């Protein structure tokens, strides 16, 4: 096993507020790694730092051995680190199938292709259809994406990210707003991809059942800092973690 | 934490079902018939009608090129007249100063406009939304005042008049066919761009630029390419204007002129390729008619524009696709 | 260049800056609260100028100038309020292109109506006797009316600063963008607030037109050309910021004065170059904040 992602001393300051402070952890290739923590723990900020949407104040992120912190989001995505968003972020007025085709076109570096007709590209269409099928959206291929139900939009969100064939997939609360069976379908898809495509998954999640059920490793954040890391068993028995969670729920 | 970007209101959306327009084959056949009828125009149309069509065909290209940014890219440019004007000036200035063959100038005109668009886009696309619109407007005015002030080079406020086209094109029928031919080819090329992978990704950047970026797309590069392509075809439209009117003058460059293709697109419908083309025909024919019959052309235009914006957000073509409101009980 | 030339050039630049600020302030105020760019703002300014010129055509006496200065803003504010209630109110939720086009339609309609009422000939308004002539400033003679314009701009700037920073209404206007939830929770009638802001902004345009009318000829094209300068000033300063509009106006006043002095034939291009340079460096203007949409 080797680390595909190494985060070292990562911090991000917003004015006087330290959203992420000296965070360090690494993600093993092919693993499913969770980041958990109460609301406002800095998970989303951390993800935005990893994908280049935000620039870190200090610290470095290495992906496949290369320093990626400070690079542009599209460059990082091209390198194979792709995320889904906590707040559904799809292309509302594009077709469902079209949306996935768009993502595939980016991956195939056909962004400046003026010559071919979109509708004659059978290969791309078939692949897009296949992704929709895997997330359970095959029946909605012709629908306008913005008109899908919330759960289906979440699924499309996942399909968009997967169709770029990332090596490391960042899922920011992927099951937020999903029904139990939609959650189950997403979780099993993630597990299957991790197994068959050697996909590495880093995800943040509120639903602790999901986290402890599928993660190989868990990093716990609180107030912008890492307070614990380990296997699900280790984390479950960590006193500080319990305190944080109980404290929040009290 | 990022706030949820507001979803566009339903009124701004494309149809929720698949487009209910004509079948593509029917549409293609219909368009072919229209082009053939236009080509046969000299047989049954008078001189003034042909001249009017020459103007409209150029404007149709201008509007469709502007709509590549507006409807497909979601980029509101109030500066496309910059490139339209450059296209016309390229021919006029060549005739006045450099005396290279007309055909060379005509071929170079869209490239000159595209080059200008590259530099304008490089700066303007750094700004977002309204600032982008106002920045393109500033460029439009910049070229306008330069053309107006540099009297010795550009002829100042009066512009450049003269026999700047070859005798063969000065024959009315030839000029008409030439403009028709170039316009049809240009529109086909623009349409091809919109249905290519490039066009799809352009629409994706319109929807959620940051999402497109997170999938690995270089959004700035994509938008810049769209801006250059739009500038190229706006320049070509301007060159067609010079063929039609044999002059170039500063008002071709200013912000009010830049507003024209935007209005044509909105009237016809900016979410369909033919919308701006239809809009150009309606706008120009209505303008000709109203200018001849009433003093209040601007008033009527303003009111019509308001009605379309408020009640037909997808323009006339959109209205046609969605079905007429009294027949289908409104858009759902 | 001797001192006198510097003083005169400086005062000319200040006069230009003052008239630009008077136009841009209302535009920026409206944008600050409503997030709408009013393309018809220049036309409203033109209505103020026409109002003043019409008053002078009716009677040349000096005291009417002061009446005009008071009534023109109210007249234009009323037009603005009507436009807001009938049109703009419908499109706040729509995207900015729609809003731009609605105000553009308003620009077309108001321009056409102005033609109908006042015709194509250019009118003029005279300076009141008490402000015509010259005054001594820093050892040079300078037109008294120009100094009055500068004074008006300063007074307007101070009044806006006091309004926005020191009154309840000002708090509400700022909250309309920064904190809409609190605003709604405070029981404010947001609809009425927006109408009021639009009316105030329009009134400022009318006031500007009335003040500037005696300095130039009043003709149907003035709305169309002045709106571009207003955009530039407001954008350089940062849309929505009154202080920014003051800075932008001063910057443009200086750029234009320097341009006319050294390179007269290129001077009109300078203000566009200034805007392009500022936005290339700071895409939201000098004092602007990132638009949250």
Number of helix segments of chain A?
9
Gap between N and C termini of chain B:
33 Å
Assign the CATH topology of the largest domain in chain A: Rossmann fold
Total E-strand runs of chain B? 2
The termini of chain A sit apart by 40 Å
Number of domains of chain A: 2
Strand arrangement within the widest β-sheet of chain B reads 1-2
Keywords:
heterotrimer, A: 250 residues, 2 domains, four-stranded antiparallel β-sheet, 9 helices, globular, B: 332 residues, mainly alpha, 17 helices, disordered N terminus, disordered C terminus
SSE layout and pairings?
The complex is a heterotrimer of chains A (250), B (332) and C (293).
Chain A: E1 3-14, E2 17-28, E3 32-36, H1 43-50, E4 58-63, E5 66-67, H2 73-79, E6 81-84, H3 96-107, H4 122-134, H5 150-162, E7 168-172, H6 180-196, E8 200-204, H7 208-214, E9 217-222, E10 225-230, H8 232-236, H9 239-249
Parallel strand pairs in A: 3-8, 3-9, 6-7, 7-8
Antiparallel strand pairs in A: 1-2, 1-4, 4-5, 9-10
Helix pairs in contact in A: 3-4, 3-5
Chain B: H1 24-39, H2 41-44, H3 47-72, H4 81-98, H5 102-124, H6 129-149, H7 151-154, E1 160-161, H8 167-170, H9 172-194, H10 197-207, H11 209-214, H12 219-245, E2 247-248, H13 255-268, H14 274-293, H15 297-311, H16 315-322, H17 325-328
Helix pairs in contact in B: 3-9, 3-12, 3-13, 3-14, 4-5, 4-12, 5-12, 9-12, 10-12, 13-14, 13-16, 14-16
Chain C: H1 3-34, H2 41-58, H3 63-86, H4 96-118, E1 134-137, E2 140-143, H5 144-166, H6 168-178, H7 180-185, H8 190-212, H9 222-237, H10 242-262, H11 267-281
Walk me through this protein's architecture.
The complex is a heterotrimer of chains A (250), B (332) and C (293). Chain A has 250 residues and is of the alpha/beta class. Chain A has 2 domains: 165 residues, 3-Layer(aba) Sandwich (Rossmann fold); 76 residues, no CATH class. Chain A is built from 9 helices and 10 strands. In chain A, strand 7, helix 6 and strand 8 form a beta-alpha-beta unit. The model of chain A has no long low-confidence stretch (mean pLDDT 87). By secondary structure, chain B is an all-alpha fold. Chain B has a domain of 231 residues. Chain B contains 17 helices and 2 strands. A two-stranded antiparallel ribbon of chain B has the order 1-2. Chain B is globular. The N terminus and C terminus of chain B are likely disordered. Chain C has a domain of 202 residues. Chain C is 72% helix and 3% strand. In chain C, strand 1 and strand 2 form a beta hairpin. In chain C, strands 1-2 form a two-stranded antiparallel ribbon. With 293 residues, chain C is an all-alpha fold. The model of chain C has no long low-confidence stretch (mean pLDDT 87). Chain C has 11 helices and 2 strands, in the order H-H-H-H-E-E-H-H-H-H-H-H-H. Chains in contact: A-B, B-C. The interface between B and C is large, with 50 and 46 residues.
